[in-house]
Each structure stands twice: as structure tokens, then as C-alpha cells.
Amino acid sequence: MNKIRLIVLSLFIVAIVSCALVRALFAQPGSETDPVVSVSYLDSVLGFDPVTIEGGEELAVPSGRGLILLDGACKIEPPASGNFKIVNVTTGEITGESTEMAIGNLYIAVAENRKSSVFKIKAWRSSTVAVPPNSGGKG
To answer: What is the DSSP string of 17-84?
Structure first.
């Protein structure tokens, strides 16, 4: 009798595992059951545009805009005066000083007077930064 229970239990476990594997094999990426975040999805939702900054160039970005360093080496420089914060949303770090950007991290630079404050992104070498459309210009 114990042998029969063991066989039935084993078959039941095999059936459950088989069903889960079949479901996983036929799941489509990007569906409601298996969401995938891709660059094209982020572009369509967040609307970030890649901007290339050559070494020694600057990119002016208004306060409150998000920034992602895609490639290269850059630093966020705050406005010359005023109350401001640079937030690394990815790590949760908040600072009131110039910040070296880490590749792939999302930054938001915010100043007390958002309308007139402009942050500078300074590149040491050719770099690509993702910024919202019409965020600013090279300087």
C-alpha cells in the first residue's frame, strides 16, 4: 500500500512540474504574465533621446529633468548658486555637490528655483546621455 502511495505521489509531482514547464516554454516575452522592459519600451514611455557629448563639451539641462549616462564619462555640475540636490534614483543617493555619473543610473537634478536653474553635464570623453526631448542644448 505504501508503494502505491509513493508512486501516485511521484506521478502527481511529475505532472505538476510538467505543467509548469510547458507553461513557461510557451509564455511569450513581453506579455502580461512575463513582462520585459526593453529600450524601445522605455523610449516609448519615458521618451528619452540619446545625445552625444564630445570630450570637453557641456550639455545644459533644466532642473527637474531625468538623465541616464549610456556610455562615456560625465559629471553633473549644479548651478553656481541656490539650493539644489542631485538624486541618483537608481541607488537612492542624494547630494548637493558635483556628481560623477555612473553608466545606467537614472539621475534627477532639482533646484529650488526650477524655472531658471540649469545644470551642466560635463563630458571628459565622448559620451552618450539619455535626456528627455527638448531638455537643453550643448554649450
So the answer is: HHHHHHHHHHPPTTSSSS----HHHHHHHH--EEEEE-TT-EEEEETT-EEEEEES-EEEE--SSS-E
**Identity (one letter) of the amino acid at 25?**
L
Q: What is the pTM of this model?
A: 0.63
Where are the chain's structural domains?
1-36, 48-131
From the CB of residue 78, how many other CB atoms can be counted at a distance below 10 Å? 23
For each of the chain's 139 residues, which pLDDT tens digit applies? 688 887 877 777 877 877 676 676 665 555 555 555 555 655 666 677 888 999 999 998 888 888 889 889 999 988 877 778 898 988 989 888 889 999 988 898 888 765 667 888 999 999 988 888 765 555 5
Quick one: CATH architecture of 48-131?
Sandwich (2.60)
Give the CA-trace dihedral at 100, 101, 102, 103, to 10 degrees: -140
Cα separation, 80 vs 115, in Å, equals 15
Contact 74, 125 (CB under 8 A): no
